[in-house]
Fold these 2 entries.
Entry 1:
Amino acid sequence: MLEFKGISKWYNVGGNKTYILNNVDLIIREGEFVSIMGPSGSGKSTLLHIMGMLDEPSEGYHYFMGQAVHLLKEKQRSQLYKQHIGFVFQAYHLIDELTVYENIETPLIYQNVKTSERKAMVADILDRFQMVGKKDLFPTQLSGGQQQLVGIARALIASPRLLLADEPTGNLNSKQGEEIMEIFKKLNNEGVTIIQVTHSEKNAGYGSRVINLLDGRIS
Amino acid sequence: MLKNYFRVALRNFWRNKVFSAINILGLAIGISSALVIYLIVQYDLSFDKFHKDGDRIYRVVTDIKFAGEPFYNSGVTDPFAVAARKEISGIELCSNFYTADDIKVVIPNSTSEKQGIFRKQKNVTYADEYYFKLFPFYKWIAGNTQDPLKAPYQTVITESRARTYFPGLDPKAVIGKQIIYDDSLKTSVSAVIRDPEEITDFTFREFISMATMDANHMHNEEWGSVTSSNQFFVKLAPNQSIAKLNSELSALLKKNNKNEQTSSTNYMIEQLQPLSDIHFNDHYDNFGQRLAQKNTLWGLSLVAGFLLLLGCINFINLTTAQASQRAKEIGVRKTMGSTQKQLVFQFLSETLFTTLIAAFVSAIITPWLLQIFSDFIPAGLHFDLLNQPQLILFMIALVLVVTLLSGFYPAMILSGFRPVLVLKNQAFGGTAKTRRTWIRKTLTVSQFVIAQFLIMATLAVTKQIHFTLSKDLGFKKDAIITMRIPWNNRKPDPNRDVLLNEINKMPEVQLASLAEPPASTNTSSRTIKYKDGKKEIETDVQLKYGDTNYLSLYRLKLLAGRNIQESDSEREYIINETYAKILGFNNPEDAIGKMVGEDKKIPIVGVVSNFHQSSLHTPIKPLAICSAKNNTYSISVALKSSNGDSKNWQNAFAKMGVVYKRLYPEEDFKYDFFDESIAKFYKSEQDISRLLKWATGLAIFISCLGLLGLVIYTTNLRMKEISVRKVLGASVRNLITLLSTDFIRLVIISFFVATPIAWWSMNKWLQNYAYRTELSWWLFPLSGFIIILIALLTLSIQTFRAAVANPTKALRSE
């Protein structure tokens, strides 16, 4: 489903190239649950951002679902990830001005889903995550675990094929973290490909494969 | 989607109440002033725009050059209209009418309150039978609608006049009723028309048939004498050359005006003045109606534009300054699949939301603004959103323009954020993001340039007004009142002498004198010839009629010769220095005894030192003072100093009133303080000054609001820095200086930008005055000082609060 060939990312610092990612090759198949691990600054997040097409590599080939992403234009790329990729962040990144309901609804709006359909889909997912009673609350009125649940619900609302998670349990206590991981496991069993960045061996244990990153290289 | 946007807009709006209030206040002020000024401009521009074939209707006016001095008259010579109708081709339709103001109207057998006597009726005209054909916009109610003005002694009146003259009568019943004008013209009403509702300078309410004038030999058959009362309008056949007609009309005048010798400095020509020009051209009067000045309209529009721009700048500055707070939302939205276009659209709709609220606020405050400027605003102007579709369209356009102007740039900035930068956890939103502050700084500087410019302009205008009002005009102007006595054909009028005598005897009165007109009022003028051996000097000389008290009452200084002696008609002249110099007498003594004039030689008996016989707009012109009681219907009275006790004067006025009423029972006793009349010369300056003061106040207010918003934002950002500094021992003063310096620097830059612009334009404005104040250098630093002081005060509202805040609070939350 996803293939990186010779992906590098660097910044020019004082005339010298500082590599964040250095010649990364990797293949991720449909249905995998991959954990990316590595010390701080090893390039985990950058790798994830490039996978999610939020960031562009400085060089290399990037294929996603049979399309050469590195050849696509901005608009087509956005069309692609909008349809197939969902994001979960460590800091949840919910929009504070929107209610739980509206936060979850937002991706559908950008995919031009009709109002009536949107209602049904959001109601469905709220039910699935047992948050119907909280739909009119604002993010600040929720606990961290609950916020992350909303974040996941939002990521899943458009039924993506790939879920990218950047330290999804980083801001949560261990019990909340476990719950999230259980949900991931369940989603993976339902066929969603998951790639998560994590520091925790325990979390990585939920996945099927671990990619270790050190100084921008896969080790 | 739009609903979603508006929801976010509303929540953001509530969350940032202070910034929202600043934005809305700034925009609302801008929009309100734009509305008010739009109303004024629109009103003045719509005068007489409704006439059928109005683009082909012209007024024939007369341009005169007398001794090289140009004069402009809105009328034609009396026989001209009739001759032009016969002899000039290319005119499809024409009408001649004669305005008759202050006419006396008597309604016989009237039961009305005033017993049917109306003195000094306005808006009355003698019109020929073609008037209603040339201006067919009047709506007929009753009577002869075909030729109501053909026969002599016919009158057409409007509904409102019909009600005044014949209360309780149906318009149909009014037809045939008698109206007597000036005690001698017995006319009967031939038709009643509706009062025109259109915006027009044609405000006549009574039309007496021109044939009435013919039948009473009221015409002045002279071709050489032109009066603005005699109006001549023509409707040209399509595709006529204006230049050709101008020369044909002038040729017609020249052919008939045989007595006049023409030269390059002495001529009289006819011009076609387009109907659309009548409301604006101040060379020609428009039947005594208010003239609008296009320059003023432009200036007003500019002021409105400035204020609007200031509001927009506030919005841009505050929105971009706060951008980092929105950054997370933008990043999230982008990862959720929003395109930049969608985000731009979202932010623009937020701006639209704010602008709509501002527009709503201004719809509420506009009527109040109109009230404040009521004496500056034409009487026929209304603000009524529901019944003025044009106004609604303008408001919609205004809202859209303001939205784009203030929303586009922030929208581009905000929507341009790269999601990855934004979402890289929290690192954002600090002081590091200074990339675009220079734009914000530039905008702030331009705001203050506008504010500074307005302050400087206000100071300069105020200084000029002060200069004109306090300048020694060469005569005494305080403690003098002027009054008029009715024009009387019984010459000489014995009552006048009685009045003058009685006033002179009153203990409160220092001196009373005939004075037509008072020392400083527009004067009639005449060409006077003087033969100096071989050379003939022809000068346009202003004439003032006084009596023996004139000089001493106005404290005019006699340089040579003696005072005039009393006389019924012009016998001798006292001239001013200017005229003496023109005649070639550098030494005033030399002028004494010289004879001027052509048919009737009149000796110069005295020379007075120059004084300003008109407003300071015009230079001192050659002048002659003479005694001619038959031409004098105005009295000036110098009062004794009241020593602060106004009772004395009130007493005197009451006594004068009694005498006046006894002598002229039909008139009302009215008087004017002379210095107030002089101040009225400068009404337009006073108006400009008042408007400028308001505009300046508002501009400063809006700019300071913006400044306040920015300083609130930056102090919030720097709270941690402030706390650390404080812990390290910084004093409150240190901190305030630290926080204010950046902003004050911007204000100082704006001072250096605004000064040359203001200096240049104020110099240009002062060129309008023959006598003008200096643009003193201190004007500019003063205005700079004022604005810096205001800016500092504004800043201190926030900086002080930040500086005295408890540092542990900010540090703990870290």
Entry 2:
Amino acid sequence: QEDTIVEEPVAPVSDISFSYIFPDYPTKEFPAGSVIEVLIGFTNNGEVDYNVSAIYASLNHAQETKHYIQNYTKAEYGVNVKPGFQATLPYRFVPSEYLEPRQFALLVSVDYRADQQNFTSTFFNSTILIVEKPVSFDIEHFFLILFGLGLVALIGYIVYGKLPKAQKASTLSIINKIKTSAGVKETSQKKVVKSSAGEDNWLIDAADKKPKKVVKKSNNIQQTQKANKVITKSQITSGTAGIIRFFAKLNCKQKRSKNRLHIKHVNLSGQVVFFVRAVIVTDNSRLP
Amino acid sequence: SKGADLLFQKKISDGPVVGKELDISFIIYNVGEGAAYDISFADTDFGASADFEVVKGQSSGKWEVIEPNTNVSQTITITPSKGGVFPLTSTILEYRKSQNEELSHTSAASYTGMYVESVEEFDKRTSLHLKEWGTFILLSFGSVAFPFALWSYYKVNYENGIKKNK
């Protein structure tokens, strides 16, 4: 069957001669992913005009050259070369940046015509070396640095994780002092406010600044005190309050000092504050 | 053929932009086995045209000899004065393959045309888009500022959920 294929006639060798240069890579070691330029000299030694129609290249397996690895775009020229003249044609191609750095066969061919006849010459067919592209930003180094930073962060986290224990201990002792001086044994909320002389700042501030309003609203508080947690549940229904309620519940089971500390940070509205107070008072009332 | 074999390249280094300096290099490589003699070329694409202003250098060159496996070059710096596509011709390089031979001709058919980018296009492609980024930052700041204002208002006027007495 192969006999039926019409072979393209090749021009007499004496008519056309080729020369080439890889100006940027004279050693034929091409970095993968870079633009490779080849200058092709097309010399017409014949008697008629030749027209260079196209140049194309392919990267093949070094040993089995029939096995194609990459085909590069065909560049169209249409350059007429008169007898006795030579034309220099540039051709550029980019070997894939994913190519393994090893030997390949590079084939560069020229299509040209004269008197309605087409010719093809593969003037370059030899092994070349694909090398790794030198990069300023190395992804491997980037991840190494990232890993290093992560390690530092981990150590920092572990060290930080040990700190709160000490802090908790110190805050506990401080709050215990406050409790003893503030008359924790008092059962009513009003008395707590009155008796807490100085140290129980967050309660006093709120109470002193708005004494009338607090008294008015303290009806609520007293109700809360009486009904303990039942009322607080019905009063506080919003999402935030729910979270606070959860914390408060949680803290009720823990030491009172902690309870106070936590709630002081989370109270957001008047309602919540009353609730919190109620809890504390409730809690306090249970003290021996 | 044991004589010289010259390859001639007309190389435009950067993307041409109106009003920006542009280097055009004429590089001659001797890939033959012998030295080339009486080498000369004269390019007419840039020097004579009113659309290009020559900053420095020249678009012609003359060398007495080019040794094998060496190269020589000539650079001209021009400033394109208007955008668009400019047709480029092949520059003819003349030289003797050996001292006694007649003149050979090499043409550099590097480009059939050169596209000169207008200033507007170039700015659009390369600008830092400060105006766009500024607008973006302003808009994203707005979405942060509103809740922050609410929070700071609360922080100033309320304490523990109760309005402060002034």
